[in-house]
Here is the input.
Amino acid sequence: MMDEQQTETTQNEPMDQKQAMEAIKTFNPLTFAGVGLILLFVILCFIGGLSIRWWLMVPVAVAGVALLMKQKAESTGLELQVCTYGIWAMVAVFLLRDIMMAHQVATVVDGFSDVMNNFNF
Here is the structure.
């Protein structure tokens, strides 16, 4: 009974850096690939702006989420948390990118309508 309480207590305690690094070393390569694709998507969002076309960005996002969803079903512990947070982060960044795109499109449409109003169309 005491051993069960000790294992529950040690499982709920946060990992130190050495334990985290050992856990990360055991991650499946697909988890690393999924996280890498999500990081690539974030970098392309902020460096390229809208010059990176959606047809290049959407497959990167979909592939990253697909890899993490596959690994989420097969993993436990820290890897499960990384997959879960990675999926939610990708959804959030994807929605933010769409909001930024919609704002820029609205700015272009407003500018075009101002030009049209100047010519009395």
In short: The helical segments are 2-12, 17-25, 29-48, 54-74, 77-118. The first helix runs from residue 2 to 12.
